[in-house]
Design a protein that fits this description.
This protein is of the alpha/beta class. The protein is about 25% helix and about 30% strand.
Amino acid sequence: MKAVILAGGQGRRLKPYTLVLPKPLVPVGDVPIMEIIIRQLAYYGFKEIYLACGHLVELIRAYFKDGEKWGVRLHYSVEEKPLGTAGPLKLLKNELDEPFLVINGDILTDMNFLEIFQNHIVQGKLMTIGITEHKTKLEYGVVHLYENNVVDYEEKPEVTHYVSMGVYVFAPYVLKYIEEGEKMDIPHLIHRFLDEDVSINSFIYRGLWFDIGNREDFEKALESFEKNRGLYLKEQGQ
């Protein structure tokens, strides 16, 4: 099975960590975040892994080399100009000839990547999005109106919504929706599908998930990693 890790971002939200390190090499505990992802992918049977790189790619290549250390084969795809999160997939059009997993290189999760991949195959859609529930506490009191009359008031309520985890599965045909050299992010690609009434599958995940590109979540991820190290790294038979 094949997977793509999106590792081309500059990590502006994680400065000063990313002033000297590319975001994929930023450590969670004592392990670079992308090493955690690679170890998880290997555990679930994804042995062909493509790294979509740009910023400080030589540091990434120097650390991960060919992937033999983790029992996978790593392939490097380097964009000459920023292509967003979907655009780099077009550079791999000849390699991605079967359903493939795509994962942001800045997330920490204990998701079973094989489960979302198998769900995608069963559903038979062009795209599957991994989603999870996320709670946001609003900063303000919320006023509910009916015909200009106040009918309820909530003081700084907590709102729950589904968010994208940055984990996707695509059918190869998806690449036809991306133009050569086009800068495109995955949300833009999703809107292209929706505009054409293309059905998109969702996979709801209720386990651990953190976006370490966000400073606040990065601190939470560090704490979670220390508590659940074996779970994330698949150590000791986990």
